[in-house]
Amino acid sequence: MDESNSRTFWEYLTHVSEHHSPLDFVLIWDHIDRFLWGTLLTLEITLFALVLGGILAVPMAIARAYKHRWLNFPIWCFTYVFRGTPLLVQTYLLYYGLAQFDAVRESFLWDPILSSAWWCALIAFTLNTAGYTTEFLRGSIETTPAGEIEAARACGMSPWTTMRRIVLPSAFRRALPAYSNEVIFMLHSSVVLSTITLQDLLGAGRWLNGRYYLAYEGFITAMLFYMVLVFIISRGFKFWEKHWLGHLRQRQTEDEPVTLKAG
Amino acid sequence: MESIWAYRNLLFEGTVVTVQLAVGSLLLAVLLGLIGATAKLSPSRVFQNLASAYTTLIRGVPDLVLMMLLFYGGQQLVNDFGDFTGWWDYLEINQFSAGVFSIGFVFGAYMTETFRGAILAIPRGQIEAGIACGMTPMKIFSRITWPQMVRYALPSFTNNWLVLVKATALVSVIGLHDLVWNASTAGRSVREPFTFMFAVLVIYLMITAISDVGLRWLDRKYSVGVRRV
Fold it and tell me: Does residue A4 form part of some domain?
């Protein structure tokens, strides 16, 4: 955009804000950097939590699916607690709660990690998404067609090779639609960040509203940003599903219903 | 442990508020879900598009953002409208109604999909049979659609309810004195935040467990007459 063009845009924005609109677009434009930084923080924690939670979830899902003698019950307890309680409470428990114990405050973990809102949020989010991912991944491992496993055995694959080449790749594919819901839900849940002093996307909106004592601007801007993020994510997953799940697609396509993740 | 016992009344009051909030939102969500599903299945293009816009919007926006928009912005909108028309002087949107409206509005979208799927699962022939017997649309709904719809919708409904219960915790952020708010206040004042948040965790698990039992009972009741393989 060249100089003259941007000035006319600016004049137009000022004019609209002053005369026609209940929203002050100039103010939003002035503070757009805060929203962009907020978006970055939201995406950063959501993404790290999803990656780490996913890594934790795979072995736990395998242990649950094959009903490991010692691990099945503890993992079930873990997923039950993390799926049965609000993420807000889990985050509070970690961030505000741990300071109650002197042993935690004096430990070497306190200073860099457990006293920081960023790390506490990351840990809580990771455990939470690990709980949900474990359960639906278990479901999709359990529904692996028996014929595929028999075929692998008949080819002389070891259990480990079967897992790596046959079971996991097809389980991941079947879990993809559930996982796209999980990703969007994690993005929605990341608003909890703004309740423990972090400036995420909603935090930027809350800041704008608090600073100028306004009712709409901050939240509506944050809302639009979230909508764009969700739109991009679900487009990405649609593409991915087309790529990886092409062989499972039904001939007649229906529009996809909105569903909640299991829990 | 003694501190929990000392503050038991506060925790109990908070639990009551949380449960009221959840049930209130659920009622609104079911109402909106029925309207939304009807609109999605109606022959009218306008209604279909409106309902799709609703579910798409909700999928795109986190519930806390809507809650804050409603709590801070809704307040101003309602009063500006009252000023403009002169119908009312000053209305206050309190935290409870902001919570019920926003959570109900959000889960209404999920209920819309739940009910739409359930209605589509009913064999079309049964409704045609109802028409052939001369039933009015109301009668077809109450005798054919509703009883079976409940059965088809229950698994997804259960799921929605469990997510809804957890969403109520967010209302503490806009200052409603619910379970989370009361517990964190009490925890701060006796300097035992972990103990109190842990108690909240346990209470939420209890609510989940109790509703699990109730919903299983409903499932059995509505599946009477269905052959189980």
Answer: no
The minimal CB distance from A260 to the residues B76, B110, B184 is found for B110
Interchain contact A206–B (C-beta under 8 A): yes
Residues B107-160 pLDDT 10s: 999 999 999 999 888 888 998 999 999 999 899 989 998 888 888 888 889 989
- Which one of A219, A233, A235, A256 would you mutate to disrupt binding with B, by most B Cβ within 10 Å of its Cβ? A219
Q: What is the pTM of this model?
A: 0.86
Q: Which domain holds residue B102?
A: 2-222
| 3-state SS assignment for residue A66 | coil
CA B43 vs. chain centroid, Å, equals 27
What is the mean pLDDT for each group of 10 consecutive residues in chain A (263 residues)?
Answer: 61 72 79 92 95 96 92 94 94 89 80 85 96 93 90 93 92 89 93 92 90 85 94 91 76 56 51
Of A89, A97, A234, the CB nearest to B204: A89
Instruction: Quote the domain boundaries for residue A207.
Output: 30-244
**What is the count of structural domains for chain B?**
1
- The neighbour count for residue B165, using CB atoms within 10 Å, is 24
CATH label of the domain that carries residue B57: 1.10.3720.10
Contacts of residue A133, defined as CB under 8 A and 6 or more positions apart, other chains included, come to A53, A54, A57, A61, A179, A182
The ipTM estimated for the assembled molecules is: 0.87
